[in-house]
Structure formats: structure tokens, C-alpha cells
Write a structure and sequence with these properties.
Largest sheet: none
Helix content: over 70%
Order of helices and strands: HHHHHH
Number of helices: 6
Number of strands: 0
Distance between the termini: 16 Å
Strand content: under 5%
Structural class: mainly alpha
Length: 124
């Protein structure tokens, strides 16, 4: 189950990091041409935090060699999904991000509680 959580964290990190780019921020979130620097910085910090945390989960569950393979494969698929979302359905990106955060929280709380799952649930 933690592999699913790590995969969803990679997808969420791709979405957050792409929304920190001004072009995507204006088209998906902002109503005007001017972006809020604080919200862009918050999106970048959240994206990098989700990415680092997913690295830790992959390496913890699968070891270094296999975890690295799963990480690269998941990141490739997540980047493709994120590119398609931002290219064709940019008004859905907010709903997808909220759904991912809720799914990560539900999956984490559904299993038996370990320290890692409790940490993920609190962070989501």
C-alpha cells in the first residue's frame, strides 16, 4: 500500500511543481496576469517536499536499486499525466490535486498504522 502512496505523492509533486511555473499558475489558478509570489513559493516547497518524501518511501520499501527503478518509472508516468492535464484540461488541475491529497490520506489511514503512515496522514 505504501507503493501506491509514494506513486500518488510523485504525481502530486509533479502537479505542484508545474503549477509553480508562472504560465501554468496563471492559466489554472490566478484570475489575473499577476501571480502571488508567496503562493508560488508554497507550491514549490510543497512539490519538492512531496518528491523527497516519495523518494524516502520508495527507497525504504524496495531498497536502493529497485526503489530507484520504481521511482524513475513512476516519475515518467506522472510527468506524462501532468503534461496531458496541463495541456488539455488545465481547469481540472485543482480538482485533481485535491482528490490526490484526499486519496493519499484515506489510503494511509486505511492500513494498520505505522510511523510512516501516521506521518503521511498528518502531512496530507
Amino acid at each position: 500500500m505504501s507503493m501506491y502512496i509514494a506513486s500518488l505523492l510523485v504525481l502530486l509533486s509533479c502537479i505542484l511543481l508545474s503549477l509553480s511555473i508562472k504560465r501554468h499558475y496563471v492559466s489554472a489558478i490566478a484570475q489575473s496576469k499577476f501571480s502571488n509570489k508567496d503562493s508560488i513559493m508554497l507550491l514549490r516547497i510543497g512539490g519538492f517536499f512531496c518528491l523527497i518524501f516519495s523518494f524516502i518511501v520508495f527507497f525504504d520499501t524496495q531498497g536502493f536499486a529497485l526503489g530507484l527503478v520504481y521511482l524513475v518509472a513512476t516519475f515518467t508516468v506522472a510527468s506524462l499525466i501532468q503534461t496531458l492535464l496541463l495541456s488539455y484540461l488545465n481547469h481540472w488541475i485543482n480538482k485533481v490535486s485535491l482528490a490526490l491529497a484526499l486519496i493519499i490520506t484515506v489510503l494511509t489511514l486505511h492500513e494498520e498504522s505505522t510511523q510512516l503512515q501516521t506521518l503521511v496522514a498528518y502531512l496530507s
